[in-house]
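Open question from group meeting: does this chain pack into something compact, or does most of it stay loose? Before anyone orders reagents, we agreed to write out a predicted structure and look at it together. Recording both the input and the output here so the notebook holds the full record.
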Amino acid sequence: MNAYPSQSMHSRREFLRKAGTGFGALAFAAWQQDASLMAALGQHERIGLPHRPGKAKNVIFLFMEGGPSHIDLFDPKPLLNQLAGQKLPDSFPKPITAMGEVHSPLLACKRQWQQHGQAGLWVSDWLPHIATMADELCVIRSCISDGINHAGGVCQMNTGSVFGGRPSLGSWVHYGLGSANQNLPSYVVIKDSDSMVVNGVRSWGSGFMPSSYQGTLLESGDEPILNLQPPGGVDETRQASKLDLLNQLNQAHLLGRESNSELDARIRSYELAYRMQAQAPEAIDLAQETELTQKLYGLDNQDTATFGRKCLLARRLVERGVRFVQLYHGAGSKWDSHDKIEPNHSKLCRQMDLPVAGLLQDLKQRGLLDETLVIWGGEFGRTPMSEKGDGRDHNPTGFTMWLAGGGVAGGTVIGQTDELGLHAVQDVAHVHDLHASILHLLGVDHTKLIYPYKGRPERIDLNEGHVLAGIKAMA
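C-alpha cells returned:
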C-alpha cells in the first residue's frame, strides 16, 4: 500500500479542480497569450482581457496622503474670501467635522488664480508647473467619500471600503488584467519617505484575494529593492541551485495545502525575486537617464529631487510592463493641515508640482501618456472653515481629484461643489464611481470584474459605482 495515498489517489473534487485548470489553459491558448509569459506566471495567475477597447494599459496613482485642500488648488471660491472671518451661513448644511469644531469662522484663500490651457482650467499659483499641463487634465471637483478620518479615508480610496479586509484597487487591476511582464511585480508601491502610510500594508493589500495580488513595496532610500543582489561569493549557478532546492521543499510543503494562498504566493515570490535579479537593477537605475530628463523631474533641486526620483522611477516601471504603480507623497499624512496650512501646503506643493508636471510631459513626449492613466488626489479635501485660526479640517463631502492620459477627456471639469467648496452639488463622484471609471478607462467593465468570496460576487465598487459621464475622450 502506498504510504502517501494523497499523492496517487484523487477525489472527484480534486479531479474536477485539476480538469478545470486544464480548461482554463485552453482558454488562455485561445487568447493567444505569450507561452513564455504563461509559464513564468504559473497556472494560478489570472491573465485577463479587457471587456471593451480601452486606451489605458497602466496606472500611476499619485496619492497625496493627508488630504490636500481643493479650494486652495483646483476649485476657486470667490465667496469664501468675501465671507472670510464670518460663520458658515445657515443656508449651508452643517458638516460633521473630524475635530468637532462647528462654529469656526471661514478661512480666506490666499492664493492667486489663473486660467490655463485652451480650456481655461483654473489652477492656483501653488501649482505653476502642473498648470502648464492643464489641457491633459480631467479635473473632478465633486468627489465625496465616507471616510471622515485618515484611516477610513485612505482605506476607502484604496479599497472601496472604510473598513479593512478588502482588496486594493491595484489588486483588482492585477486580477482583472494580469501581469504584462515576467521579471517585475505587476503592482508596485513607492513612498517618498521612511514614514509609513496610514493603515500600512492594508492600503495595498489583496484582502480576500490570493496574496499574490498584493502590491510590492519599494523602499524610499538608495536601495529601493532590498537584498536584490546575491551575497558575495555566490555565483549565478549556485544561486539557481539554492533556489531550486528551496522550491522543491516549498512545493512538497504545499502538497495538500493548495488552498493556502499565502504559501502559494510565497513560493511564487521567490521565483519572481530570482527573475528580478536580472532585470530589476536596470529598471531602477536612474543614472541611465539623460541629464535633461533628470532635470525635467527636478533631480537637480533639493526640494524636488526626492519625489522627482519616485516619479521618474514610476515612468521606468510602466515602461517595462508594471501594470499599477502607486506613489505616496507626504507619507504619514503630511498633507494634513489642521493648522499652518500656508507653510504646510507651500512646502508640499513645491516638492510635488515640478515632478508631477515632468512625469506628464515625459510620458507624453515618449508616446506613453495615451496608454498610461495618471491619477492625482488624496483621501479627502479640506473645509472652508478654519481650524486653530490658520488651518482647515478634513472634508470628505466635496473635494477634487484629477486624471490624465489613458483616454481621459483632457482640459475638462466634471462636477462642482457649492459656493464655499464644502459639499459636492453637481455630478457627485463617490469613491465607488471613481473606481468604476478608472476600470472603464482600462477597458474593464466594473460590473463584470467579479471575485467570488464566501458565496458572494464581490466587486471593487461594492455594487454601487457608476462610470462618470464625460470622463472618456471621444474616439
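Observations to bring back to the group:
The mean pLDDT is 86.
Residues 341-365 form the longest helix (25 residues).
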